[in-house]
Amino acid sequence: MRLSLRAGERIYINGAVLRVDRKVAIELLNDATFLLESHVLQVEEATTPLRQLYFAAQTMLIDPARTEAAWSLYDGIRDGLLATIRDPALRDGLEAAHGLIEAGRLYEALKQLRGLYPAEAALLSPGDMPVAPVPVLGALARRSRGPERPRERPPSGADIRRPPAARGRPAPQTLPALDPEA
Length: 182
Description:
Structural class: alpha+beta
Number of domains: 2
Number of strands: 5
Low-confidence stretches: 131-135, 150-182
Largest sheet: 3 strands, antiparallel
Strand content: 5-15%
């Protein structure tokens, strides 16, 4: 497999984070576990159920020592998604990603999950889309953040917009269910 990296870009390969100082092409001559910097999801970006699922799968790839905890989180999120999602294409995509993960093909599973983001976004209305980090991922996030990317100043508590309350219920503090009747 041949990978092209830009100057300053980082890549995760077999547990090591590498940064290149110039444009370079890397050819992997044997099986290696890798993840490009642009595909690393930071915990603060895991703001929807599908992105949480991606983060849990990513943790299995980046931090094999935490695979058991990541599997537990992954299974819980996946079960919740399958219990609420009725869209056949999204369900099929989740099953395909799960099959890839069970086969140890985590990179391909992450690619499959990223491809489902637009379908999930179509199910979630803008008012239902949470914008705050999801607390359940906090324990995994401490050690499995992957390569750091330059970030703007994180929002303070006052800057975080919470979803509005609906039908007399208080505004949600965690992710809503994908089933609108839930």
